[in-house]
Amino acid sequence: MVQNISQTRPIVKYQNGKLQEEDDEIVTEFPITIHINGEEFATMVCTPTHLEELVIGFLASEGVILFKDDIADLKIDESQGFAYVTLKSKIQLNQQQYSKRFIGSCCGKSRQFYFQNDVRTSKTSMTKTVIKADECINLMNTMQKNSLVFKNTGGVHNAALCNPSDIIVDRTDIGRHNALDKLYGHSILNKIPVRDKIIVFSGRISSEVLTKAAKIGVGIVLSKSAPTDLAIQLAEDLNITTVGFIRGQSFNVYSHAERISSIDEAQMS
């Protein structure tokens, strides 16, 4: 059974001094539990699209796998909300770097850099990519225009894996981490090199989001929202360029600004 991305529900809306009944489109919230080698590993709450990418991206970000070939078998039962993963090698899921935990769709502390595993799997960027200021703005505008689910529901995060000039793939999810995991899973499944790529993101750049970008391996993160102080500290340490508040024709660069070129600089080069 394929789950719907959204559902139409009757609501009562207040507008212009009046209450009136109408239909509204509500985004679907879907739990999926991952079992690895017969043992429960984690439950995520997500938007039920691109579930294979989500599972693979999540396992890669947790350091369980490095490549698609590490998986002997992957079966997803959408009707029951389970993903069954068989790895080619045995792992001890009760090791210190793993912790079985419920991962919600909200913006709480569901995944943090404080886990030993996050320190182990985060990568220092070695990218040589430089992006023009107007390309930052164009990528953000394009990603936002592409998200029909956000336009219809207002209840999801958007993320895109990009070159400076265009979007390679974009994904949507109620969970900001999930949207990034889907990008990671897509790049693993399609063997897309990510070192020179850019992530464009609709939400706040928290330490968890910055860590997720570091695990994926990109060196530039663009957002329409703000970063946190810890995210900026991590970005400085991991050599990642962070750009926030991309709105209209302006934005702020918070770390490693050498990868952002202005229109004047581009014309001089």
Automatic annotation (TrEMBL):
Q: Which GO terms describe its biological process?
A: Mo-molybdopterin cofactor biosynthetic process
**What job does the chain carry out?**
Required for formate dehydrogenase (FDH) activity. Acts as a sulfur carrier protein that transfers sulfur from IscS to the molybdenum cofactor prior to its insertion into FDH.
Stated family: Belongs to the FdhD family.
Q: Which GO terms describe its molecular function?
A: sulfur carrier activity; sulfurtransferase activity
- PANTHER family, from UniProt? FORMATE DEHYDROGENASE, SULFUR CARRIER PROTEIN FDHD
UniProt KW Cytoplasm keyword: yes
Q: Which Pfam families match?
A: FdhD-NarQ
- Which InterPro entries does the record match to this protein? Cytidine_deaminase-like, FdhD
Gene3D superfamilies noted in UniProt: 3.10.20.10, Cytidine Deaminase, domain 2
Q: Key word Transferase present in the record?
A: no
Q: Name one GO cellular component term.
A: cytoplasm
Subcellular localization, per the record?
Cytoplasm
Q: Specify the superkingdom.
A: Bacteria
What is the name of the protein in this document?
Answer: Sulfur carrier protein FdhD
Q: Which UniProt keywords apply?
A: Cytoplasm, Molybdenum cofactor biosynthesis
Q: Which residues form the active site?
A: C107
